Amino acid sequence: MSYLEYAVQRVPAGLSKVLYVNWALVVLLAAVAGLGWLMLYSIAGGSLMPWAEPQMKRFAAGLVLMFAVAFVPIWFWRNVAGLAYGLSLVLLLGVEFFGSVGMGAQRWIDLGFIRLQPSELAKITLVMALAAYYDWLDIRRTSRPMWVLLALVLVLLPTFLVLRQPDLGTGILLLLGGGAVMFLAGVSWLYFAAVIAIGLGGMTLVLASRGTEWQILKDYQYRRIDSFLDPSIDPLGAGYHINQSKIALGSGGWSGRGFMQGTQSRLNFLPEKHTDFIFTSLAEEFGFVGGVSLLVLYGLILVFCIAAALKMKDRFAQLLTLGVAATFFLYFAVNMAMVMGLAPVVGVPLPLVSFGGSAMLVLMFGFGLVQSAHIHRPRGP
Amino acid sequence: MKRPPRDIALSSRRINRRAAILGGLMGAGMLMLAGRMRQIQVDQTDQFRLLAEENRINIRLIPPVRGLIHDRNGTVLAGNEQNYRVVIVREDAGDVDLVLARLARLIDLPAEIVDRARREVFRHRPFVPVTIAERLDWEQVARIASNAPSLPGITPEVGLSRNYPLEEDFSHVIGYVGAVSERDLDAQEVPDPVLQLPGFQIGRIGVERQMEHALRGSAGTKRTEVNAVGRVMRELDRREGTPGRNVQLTVDHRLQNFIHARLAGESAAVIVMDVETGDLRAIASSPSYDPNLFARGISSADFRGLLDDPYRPLVDKSVQGVYPPGSTFKMVVALAALEAGLVVPEERVFCPGHMDVSGRRFHCWRRGGHGRLNMVSALSESCDVYFYDMAQRVGIERINAMSERLGLGVRHALPMSAVAAGLNPTREWKQARRGEPWQVGDTINAAIGQGFVLNSPLQLAVMTARLASGKAVVPRLVRAVGGVEEPVAEAPSLGLDARALAIVRQGMVECTNHQRGTAWSSRIVEASARMSGKTGTSQVFTITAAERAAGLRRQQDLPWNRRNHALFVAYAPIEAPRYAVAVVIEHGGGGSSAAAPVGRDVMLHALHGGMPPLSAYPEPQRNRIETQQRDLLGRMRPPQTDGRDRA
Q: Measuring CA to CA, which of A11, B188, B271, B451 is 20 to 30 A from B249?
């Protein structure tokens, strides 16, 4: 069933759409954001500035954006998916040429009123584009090599541009996010098995290329891999982040050191404590209980997304909803794995909690799409 | 595009199936994350808590206050003065250049100090206080304080730094403090952590170094919470250390000051020692230097100036310098001969002005000879030939043994740097050192304190004190440490034959109190302070036969560094000796002309505890002495100023 076949009468219209918003999801998002404000307030030493207050404003803007997106019918978003994807590619190319350099990488485009991070945008537009692609594609052709290759190109184009910035974290997220949508769309297992095999081979190759003339990654990326494998080799250099992060986590213990009592974060031992490493502050101050609570909140968000998707009959809406959920999962899973020393340190924020505008707005845009799909699904008479 | 319903059902089924798989994978991922969280936060929490504490807590040392050094009356010789300095904190200052320029105008800082401070400021992290200038006066501090609003980030602070209020007087005794070097740290197996504090000073030489352990004290600690860049967030607790112990010396700063004034212009050393207790009343080496220069960090120009001075102000001539003792050594030979029974005091020896021994001619200082003299006259008139004879009778071994008994050629234990051992030359020493056998001429030279014999002024003072008291007194410099008196051990008797000792003493008495004595002109006429002494004149260069034939030149006509050393040892009063004095004036010319007058002035000052009355001097000399005393009083430190530090 495609949106063209919607019996428009059976879809909520006008103000009644408000009734069909998935309010539980909104509450969950607000709860996670609230936890984020609490942490930003604590890290600033009990002050709304410089982080908590701007973050609240951003979340408010994000909510407005989400509702705006939600009330626009889902078929509109299907129609503009290709355009959005194209736009984000253009922006990524723009970063390549006009971007400002921050933290050793080109990531932002300064549009005057907002410093846009096109790589964040690409995560959602890629999901949109793939969902639209598989909605358009004859279902029997899903696993034909030609059509798989086309989807792969859709994934690899933005991934390549992002890796050039260089932004390993977003690159991985794009690749995995795109892969998830392809998997959901029903691409044969064999392709994934092959990709995993090639991936392992590639990893070996990357490691083997180190120090040779055709070295694939930058030196700092290799050092991150080294310090991931053994953080103690360079406790003040590349391994500093992960060591201090583990100390913060571990010293939190079962129930944490208490709100605003985390010495690691308050005394600045934690790097990037308000952005990528904010989870360590949370785990230090609220302990295992706090960490698991956040994990449960995230899990509930996923559950609600998947539950909503299962009720949808529209292929685009389903793939989009599940794709957003998968991207969301990848965000927090990679971030947590990174701060807990399970994955190398790559720049991935903790969704809705880390201080930052682009990721927040893009995620809220994504949840707006989910809400739109939820609102505009055909319901019984 | 219209899609067949069969496809829609297939699509939905397939997506739902895959969604379930993906959901399962996500659930597994989240379980893994929770498991890892449990592992770190629950299982390993103790280990990480400890690491977090180590991160957070910084233990800082509080430097102990260094102990003071007093003289025997409690006057401060080495103290800690409040040192006003001005520090700047970059992050509070804002525009560092502007603030520094204002400060420089306000308290008149030279441009190079401002430049250096500027560089320092930018080398440190922005919250670290950097010292701009030290040792400000009160006026400058007041001006900074009253202009505080226009000087953000600048604060006057007060700290303690070592100072030596008596400047040159005790530099060789007390030494000075200085920065800790790498070698100091390496020298200790477990270096006191306080040594690593920036700006911490330790004793470099002298009492400051030798008594470092007592003076330093031990550091307190302050536990502070610091952040990742080391900024102190708050103080958690502190444990006060123990301040260094005060050290009281046996020296008398008034006497020391008088001696320095009296020795002005000479390269000389004077020791004054209590003959009963061994207390060193004065240890002076002239010229001296200001130890404050070293404690504050001496400029290379000043240091070069001190190094290049031909009078060698940096060298401590009193305990470190060794000289041929000259005729002051004759008491040793006389006692050795008497103790061995190889001479009776009344025996007269004829002095024709020289003596020939195994083909070499040894001269007496008096070219025409002394004629026939006994031991007392030989000592009093300092006849060389008499002692050439004695030396051949007793031999170098007995001379050395007596020398050691009297405290010569022995390293005395004093908390000063490089205390010299001197030299009692033996046959083995000459064979080992020179590769030549001992010759009878060496013994003859030794008999008059020439040749290889070397003694320090301190040793000569000890010898004199032992001759005066008949006891094995040892020199003592430390009177009390931390308020606890150092015990004075009753000195054991030397075990010398009383009659032999009396003969030697009589020789010394006549030397200063008999018209024919070499120190007759330096006698003391005050009945209760009469002095007994012995002059010495030691050659620096061997007089060749050709020179002797050409006629000896007068000392005044020789270049300074070829003139003879002048020596004088004395004790007084004769009947109940209190002090022994040893004087060595480098290239002074002659013992009776240069050293003995100094010895007398010092002895009288010691006995009177101040400037002696003119009546102590022989009538004809009083006019000259009066002028000299006026001149000295003008150069001495006025008594009221040195009382300010009295503890």
A: B188
Side-chain-facing half-sphere of B156: CA atoms under 13 Å? 19
Q: Can B403 be counted among the known catalytic residues?
A: no
Cα–chain-centroid distance for residue B605? 24
B234-269, pLDDT tens digit by residue? 777 777 888 999 999 999 999 999 999 999 999 999
The candidate with the shortest Cα–Cα distance to A169, out of A270, A267, A275, is A275
3-state SS track over A53-89? HHHHHHHHHHHHHHHHHHHCCHHHHHHHHHHHHHHHH
Residues B315 and B301: their CA atoms lie apart, in Å, by 18
- Give the span between the Cα atoms of B510 and B179, in whole angstroms: 53
Instruction: Tell me the C-alpha distance between B223 and A364, whole Å.
Output: 47
Distance between CA atoms of B416 and B285, rounded to whole angstroms? 13
Interface check for B229 against chain A (CB to CB < 8 A): the answer is yes
Span B476-512, pLDDT tens digits: 999 999 989 988 888 899 999 999 999 999 999 999 9
Query: Is cis: bond before A50, omega within 30 of 0?
Result: yes
Q: Is A261 on the interface with B (CB under 8 A)?
A: no
Superfamily name with CATH number, domain B253-292+318-642: DD-peptidase/beta-lactamase superfamily (3.40.710.10)
Q: Where are the beta strands (DSSP E) in chain A?
A: 100-102, 105-110, 115-116
How crowded is residue B62: how many other Cβ atoms within 10 Å of its Cβ? 15
Q: Which amino acid is at A269?
A: F
Sort strands B154-163 and B76-89 into parallel, antiparallel or unpaired. antiparallel
A268/B229 CB distance under 8 A = yes
Q: Where are the domains of chain B?
A: 87-162, 253-292+318-642
For residue B299 the two structure tokens come to 């400029």
Here the ipTM equals 0.88
| Minimal-distance CA residue of chain B relative to A341 | B36
Give every CB contact of residue A123 below 8 A, 6+ residues apart in sequence: A170, A173, A174, A177, A327, A362, A366
**What does DSSP assign to residue B419?**
-
Enter the DSSP assignment of B151: S
CA angle B81, B82, B87 (to 5 degrees): 135
How many residues are listed for chain B in this entry? 647
The count of other CB atoms within 10 Å of the CB of residue B72 is: 17
Positive or negative torsion for Cα A199, A201, A204, A209: negative
What residues of chain A lie within 8 A of the CB of B37, using their CB?
249, 283, 288, 291-292, 295, 340
